[in-house]
Amino acid sequence: MSVQAVEATASATVANLGVGFDILGMALQAPCDVVRAERSDAEGVQIVAITGDAGELSRDPTRNTAGIAAAYVLGQIGAAAGVRLTLHKGLPLASGLGSSAASAVAAAVAVNALFGEPLDHAALLAASLEGEAAVSGRHADNVAPSLFGGITLVLGAAAEAIYSLPVPPNLHLALATPAIAVPTAHARAVLPPSVPLKALVHQTGQVALLIHALYTGDLALLGAALEGDQVIEPARAHLMRGLAEVRAAARARGALGTVISGAGPTLCSLCDSEAVAERVAEAMREVYAELNLPAAIRVTQPALHGATWRAL
Questions:
Q1: Separation of alpha carbons 149 and 121, rounded Å
Q2: d(Cα 34, Cα 193) in Å, to the nearest integer?
Q3: pTM attached to this predicted model
Q4: Which residues are catalytic?
Q5: Residue 185 — very low, low, confident or very high, per pLDDT cuts 50/70/90?
């Protein structure tokens, strides 16, 4: 008997990892988006409900990343039946945690599973990117880690251009998401159109140092490399209220480095234990309280595995 309904879960991501603009991304254990997919006699994609978005997202499947990714999968497999989607947003919108990517990945995985998993992850990457492109542009630094898990080096939009990097086992993260939206398009609009040669040399050196730190498991070196960005962060810092204060407070409590997650405004601090991450999270909470700015604070770790699904 064929499966009539499935539920897929896709995780948040930290894109860029400071110096790796558009080429590095890391999947998180939490938060996550969840998509339920059910077979439908009607053709195409219907989005029957969205929760957790405060009513902000469109239920028009042609304007929603989950709907677009689902339709792409249906087209790839030539499905005769349609699907009904229910989307639960565990990720805050415009937060720098890959919200649109997680929805697209969860929908692609769910629809593929609903029809017996005829597509491999390479095809699901294409479907997820189709959804992501509608909101944030066709780049895979969020989609790839959410789909595949772990830390990924992204050198293109095809699966063969995605490389899995080592994840140090004692890597813990403290995240702060202040209640201000920073749309990806806005964050990209403030970037410099060109980069001086000296800055390019520095930036590529820091990316190389980061990769070396991952392979050697040197978290102190990794924290230093993360904060080595002299191109993207300086251009975006004015959009991230509290960045300097959070970085200083986090380091005082033991953080090894603090960076903007993706386009922001979420800030991510690297820690070498859960205890340190909890202390850093409390420091972040205190900073935003002093700034009178509500913020969601959480402690998590990298997700070693990608998006998952289960039959209902």
A1: 12
A2: 37
A3: 0.95
A4: 132, 184
A5: confident
